[in-house]
Amino acid sequence: MLDAEFNGRLGDFGMARFHEHGGNAATTAAVGTVGYIAPELVTMGASTATDVYAFGVFMLEVACGRRSVEAQFQVEKKHMIKWVCECWKKDALLDATDPRLGDEFIAEEVEMVMKLGLLCSNIVPESRPTMEHVVLYLNKNLPMPDFSPYTLGIGTFAPFMADAASLLALSASWSWSGPPMSSSSCQPTDQPWSETKNSLHVVAEPEKPKT
């Protein structure tokens, strides 16, 4: 976003609703839109990895032509990340593409975007690529890492409050030229996000006074 002097500012549209312009932006709240929020945001805080997660969701939305969570869809298609991964497991990744594209796309490029979207939205923060790597992958200046729909953390749609610490420990044993990643099977969760709200506002409990 640009300010009045056209200086670039990194911000969050959800946060803008809770703070006056020029006011103190310090908060203990986690604010964001359901579907874009990295599951570790509450327990570990915001980071470049949480931004990469949101960008991965964005890439999948562009390729699939839908929102991350569609409450009115069939059960198997409600959560986009899980659905795209299931299509990949069936060797039918292109079935998840936006039907409005028709035949006006290059299959290899769309598949690459979808796989990269899944890689960026990995539930394990340490296994997400940096944005530098993402740009290199998109420009085909660096080959994509070797991973599958069964790789740990891929295609997992986790609740916002999920603790990824155990997954981080499991992912430490396998590495590649980019960020580390595990080759173990992913463990998707059956717990859905709330389907009645478009945004989530979680506020940390205040500390109890010391006696």
From TrEMBL:
Main location: membrane
Domain of life: Eukaryota
Protein keywords: ATP-binding, Cell membrane, Glycoprotein, Lectin, Membrane, Nucleotide-binding, Receptor, Signal, Transmembrane, Transmembrane helix
GO BP annotations listed: defense response to oomycetes
Species name: Brassica carinata (Ethiopian mustard)
Mode of membrane association: Single-pass type I membrane protein
Molecular function per GO: ATP binding; carbohydrate binding; protein kinase activity
Family that this chain belongs to: In the C-terminal section; belongs to the protein kinase superfamily. Ser/Thr protein kinase family.
Pfam families to which the protein is assigned, alphabetical: Pkinase
Sequence segments annotated as region (Disordered): 180-211
Gene Ontology CC annotations of this record: plasma membrane
Domain Protein kinase: 1-147
Entry protein name: Protein kinase domain-containing protein
Keyword Cytoplasm among record annotations: no
Lineage: Eukaryota, Viridiplantae, Streptophyta, Embryophyta, Tracheophyta
Subcellular location: Cell membrane
PROSITE patterns linked to this entry: PROTEIN_KINASE_DOM (PS50011)
Compositional bias ranges of the Polar residues kind: 186-199
